[in-house]
Amino acid sequence: MHEIILCKLGEVVLKGLNRHSFETKLMSNIRRRTQKFGKFKIYSRQSTIYVEPVGDGCDLAGAYAACKQVFGLIAIARAVPCEKSKEAILETAKAYLGDSLRKAVSFKVESKRADKSFPMSSIQISQWVGGMLHDAFPHLKVDVHTPELTVYVEIREDAAYVHAPAEPAAGGLPLGMGGSALSLLSGGIDSPVSSYMMAKRGVVLEMLHFAAPPYTSDLARQKVLRLAQELTPWCGRMSVHIVPLTEIQEQIRKQCPEEYFTLITRRFMMRIADKLAKEFDCRALITGENLGQVASQTMEALRVSEDVTDLPVLRPLIGMDKEEIVRIARHIGTFDTSILPYEDCCTVFTPRHPKTKPHVEEVREIESVLDIEGLVSRAMEQREVVKVKL
Ligand code: ATP
Ligand code: MG
């Protein structure tokens, strides 16, 4: 049986005049993700993208799983095309969904007719196919409200398609349609989720991680690279820039009052992020900050940290509860790595009583004893980049 994948477009269909470029981008993203599973013909018709294996030896299950992680698709189903006649549709349903029909207790048939020249209406197709399936599988009950199995029939221009219920896909917008941004990736639970959330809006990510060797270990670094790797099925391949913060943190500790450590450290992070973003033509910074979660995440503290950049700082988790964040982290597959117990540079020097309501002017004044430019440029010079592939 010649099984194919039907991908239903999500918000892309709302894009009016831009729709064509969205669809083209989406198809090229699907092509890239499925290529390691064999050769597929990928084309779009009537708000659906078709992924059709060419020749034998394609791993359809692999391609299906990959498509489920492509942003821009709202639902996905495996389906079998057949000739546009009611008999062919019935035979295909029996052969393709026979096992499921035998196991189910109740069912219904739902039809859609995009090709209006087809001689039966959708209701007539459903009734006829449903009746014939009922004859063939007499144990089944017809239940139009809550059937255990729904058999879908679609009559389109080039063929009819029979499929079982579609599954939800990744949603969002095609990667590459939202420009690029620089995401600050720590080893925690939050920043992989914030990265994923912005990628879901079509944003291509460049990643930045701060380490503080020897205070932070190689294991902490490996953990961050593993998180980046776990993000690639969603966010695509990426570069992780690793910048050492050691000298900066030592200088802050030596020269600034303890209650300001975190705030001033965060300002350095933002300065470096700003520079790197501009170098890579990124139009925004992304962080996993969340209002009220820790002392450095009050509105006053956020104001102080973003004071050193003129780029928009996107904080997709700002109003979420930890529970919701954890749920997403589990869903995208980063949670188990995030909870590995390696230290982050932020936790190496944590003040006992961090300032929660800082003023920008006051912080600027306090940090003015530091050689800000020298520290930033030395840290930038020592950076390293690791390419993480899908
Ligand atoms: P996370 O779970 O993402 O580590 P958090 O709740 O621990 O977040 P903070 O440690 O205050 O909060 O960090 C807030 C945000 O700052 C992080 O979500 C991340 O975007 C950025 N950040 C923190 N530490 C680092 C780091 N070592 N490298 C890069 N970015 C970092
Ligand atoms: Mg953290």
Automatic annotation (TrEMBL):
Classify the main location.
cytoplasm
Q: In which pathway does it act?
A: Cofactor biosynthesis; thiamine diphosphate biosynthesis
Q: Which PROSITE patterns match?
A: THUMP
Q: Where does ATP bind?
A: L184, L185, H209, F210, R266, G288, Q297
* Name the record gives this protein: Probable tRNA sulfurtransferase
Name the UniProt key words of this record, in alphabetical order. Answer: ATP-binding, Cytoplasm, Nucleotide-binding, Plasmid, RNA-binding, Thiamine biosynthesis, Transferase, tRNA-binding
Residue ranges of the THUMP domain?
A: 61-166
**What SUPFAM superfamilies has UniProt attached to this entry?**
Adenine nucleotide alpha hydrolases-like, THUMP domain-like
EC assignment: 2.8.1.4
Q: Carries keyword DNA repair?
A: no
What does this gene product do? Answer: Catalyzes the ATP-dependent transfer of a sulfur to tRNA to produce 4-thiouridine in position 8 of tRNAs, which functions as a near-UV photosensor. Also catalyzes the transfer of sulfur to the sulfur carrier protein ThiS, forming ThiS-thiocarboxylate. This is a step in the synthesis of thiazole, in the thiamine biosynthesis pathway. The sulfur is donated as persulfide by IscS.
